[in-house]
Amino acid sequence: MNQPLGNRLSGLLRRWGRFLVGLPPYAWLVLFFLVPFLIVFKISLSEMQAAIPPYKPLLAWAEDGVLQLRLNLGNYRYLLTDDLYAVAYLNSLKIAAISTVGCLLIGYPMAYTIARAPKGNRNALLMLVVLPFWTSFLIRVYAWMGILKSEGLLNAFLLWTGVINEPLQILETDLAVYIGIVYSYLPFMVLPLYATLEKMDLSLLEAAADLGCRPFRAFLAVTLPLSLPGVIAGSMLVFIPAVGEFVIPDLLGGPDTLMIGKVLWAEFFDNRDWPVASAVAVAMLVVLVAPIMVFQRYQSKAVDS
Amino acid sequence: MKNRALILYGLLALGYAFLYLPIVLLVTYSFNASRLVTVWGGFSTRWYGELVADQKVLDAAWLSLKVAVTSATAATLLGTLAAVMLVRFGRFRGRTLFTGLITAPLVMPEVITGLAMLLLFVAMEQSIGWPAGRSMLTIILAHVTFCLSFVTVVVQSRLAQMDLSLEEAAMDLGARPLKVFLVITLPIIAPALAAGWLLAFTLSIDDVVISAFVTGPGATTLPIVVFSKVRLGVSPEINALATVVVAVVSIGIAVAGRLAHRRERERQDSQRLAAEQG
Fold first, then answer.
1. pTM for this one?
2. How many CB atoms lie within 10 A of CB B34?
3. Chain A: nearest CA to B93, how far in angstroms?
4. Residue A132: in which H helix or E strand, if any?
5. Domain B31-277 falls in which CATH fold?
6. I need a labelling partner for A257 at 20 to 30 A (CA). Which of A17, A303, B36, B82 fits?
7. pLDDT one-digit tens code per residue, B63-116
């Protein structure tokens, strides 16, 4: 008689304990991460007005005492009619995609070499990749301004070697944005790649060699497919934030480097048009939902294994 | 075979050069007497003098430090709870949503997060009057939110690797779950908590975009000051600031490396001792 009651009590206590552990982070994220997105969506349907805050409420008491719901799709229509937005979207996707490929081309050989280095050296070599990340991102982007500008170090070096006769315009072009993104996001590509390459069973390569497979073919047939989860995780870690990147195109790009993050920033800070800025954010999220879900799947798989 | 290794290590070295060259150049030019990057005007610490005399930079640095310490501490507390929940609670109602809320901030473009948080603060102020206006408080709330996910991921992987038999042994000896967590689990995952805290601190003290959205008058963080200076062009004072940051980070990493090394050696020593006695 006493035993089941005790069991039930301890079960109840355990459930309460779990509830108390889970509540703070869950409630925090719902309030400060989920709810804000709903508000963004709400305000994207609102109209701008010259007041504080600078948007009209969706729900309002009309003069005759009826609660009125005003939904306004004008902001989205505006995004569709003005070419600027479509161009900025496509350009952001293009720049993010090319930068992701750039990170992959530089990051894969690095991760591969570190994963195949003697065991005692791997952590130190990996640490060297992560180290720059601990210094300021802003300052590292700024460093490239001094290197890339027309009277900067790269041009001075190229002029000195005689490769070019007059300075190249690199800063304030898309090329500078590519360099900036690849440089800033490289560690995010190398880390997941290293994690999958390091876990790989090397006896598979021996088996391939025993069967007469040349090293390069074995790489294509065995190593590359096995490292695909790392490739995807790394690519998502670079691609998704790069689409909405603001600081890099603002500092390294030119006035005609259109990226959606810059457009959102300008709508918000320069035009003070919160509803249009919100509509831009919603439209960006629609594009990014699929990549974010892919990333989520690989991320939870990586943690579970 | 030998050639292949040579090529691979060559590529690795090039990668490191790409990563470190800009930083080395910044540090070098912070000691340049000339204002121009391409002209070497002789060794000088002039820009450090200007940096130390710049009250705006100093105030902003102090504010950033306060924000980063508070945000990192809160994010570590919440992130550890979230990690325990994800690793130890198995299936629970709302788990899918929760993992989504943890992973999405890792990749969410900062302009979206920043805008969303600001609109939340404005809506909250309108409806419940808190937080009143935009200030250091709103920056901290925003920073805790995006740092929390990073701490969770770091602690989660450590917790998942942990040997459960130690906890089970304590439980068998009659310890209550809370005591087991405090006496057994916490010391084992402590390095991950430290790493998570440092990561959160770094992310917070470095953030410019989210802070720019949620800040208000009187709450200017260091990255916001740096960003407004840098937007106007290259300035030697920022080179000096960058060098200070690099120096602090290098010292921090050297100390952390030494501590980890010593810990590892002590662990090996005690293992050997135990083996000899057994």
1. 0.91
2. 14
3. 11
4. helix A119-134
5. MetI-like fold (1.10.3720)
6. B36
7. 999 999 999 999 999 999 999 999 988 888 889 999 999 999 999 999 999 999
Report the C-alpha dihedral over residues B216, A250, A130, B108, rounded to 10 degrees. 60
Q: What whole-number distance in Å separates Cα of residue B142 and Cα of residue B154?
A: 20
- Please, are residues A114 and A125 in contact by the beta-carbon 8 Å criterion? yes
With a CB-CB cutoff of 8 Å, which residues 68-87 of chain B face chain A? Answer: 77-79, 81-82, 84-86
Q: How far apart are CA B78 and CA B149, in angstroms?
A: 9
Geometric angle at alpha carbon A103, from A33 and A203, rounded to 5°: 105
pLDDT digits (tens, 9 = 90+) for B138-147: 999 999 999 9
Residue count (chain A)? 305
Query: Does B40 contact A at CB distance below 8 Å?
Result: no
Q: Answer whether B79's CB lies under 8 Å from B155's CB.
A: yes
Q: Residue B141: closest CA among chain A residues belongs to which residue?
A: A32
CA distances from A168 to A251, A255, B26, B182 (A): 18, 17, 21, 61
Quote the CA–CA distance of A221 and A200 in Å, as a whole number.
14
A244 and B112: CB-CB below 8 Å? Answer: yes
Q: What residues of chain A lie within 8 A of the CB of B242, using their CB? A: 135-136, 139, 142-143
**CA B229 – CA B218 distance, rounded (Å):** 17
B242 in contact with chain A, both atoms CB, cutoff 8 A: yes
Q: DSSP assignment of chain B, as one string? A: -HHHHHHHHHHHHHHHHHHHHHHHHHHHHTTBSSSSSS----B--HHHHHHHH-HHHHHHHHHHHHHHHHHHHHHHHHHHHHHHHHHHS-S-TTHHHHHHHHHHHHHS-HHHHHHHHHHHHHHHHHHH--S-SSSHHHHHHHHHHHHHHHHHHHHHHHHHHS-HHHHHHHHHTT--HHHHIIIIIHHHHHHHHHHHHHHHHHHHHH--HHHHHH--TT---HHHHHHHHHHT---HHHHHHHHHHHHHHHHHHHHHHHHHHHHHHHHHHHHHHHHHH-
Of A58 and B30, the one with more pLDDT? B30
Domain ranges of chain B: 31-277
Q: Which residue of B has its CA nearest to A298?
A: B103
CA dihedral B248, B145, A266, A58 (to 10 degrees): -160
Chain-centroid distance of CA B179 in Å reads 29
- Min Cα separation B47/chain A (Å): 16
B222/A44 Cα distance (integer angstroms) = 31
Across the interface, whether the CB atoms of A25 and B178 are under 8 A apart is answered no
A30: pLDDT strictly greater than 50: yes
Cβ A143–B4 below 8 Å, yes or no?
A: no
Q: What is the pLDDT of residue B235?
A: 81
A1 confidence band (pLDDT: 50, 70, 90): very low
CATH architecture of the domain covering A78-304 = Orthogonal Bundle (1.10)
* Beta-carbon separation of B242 and A106 below 8 A: no
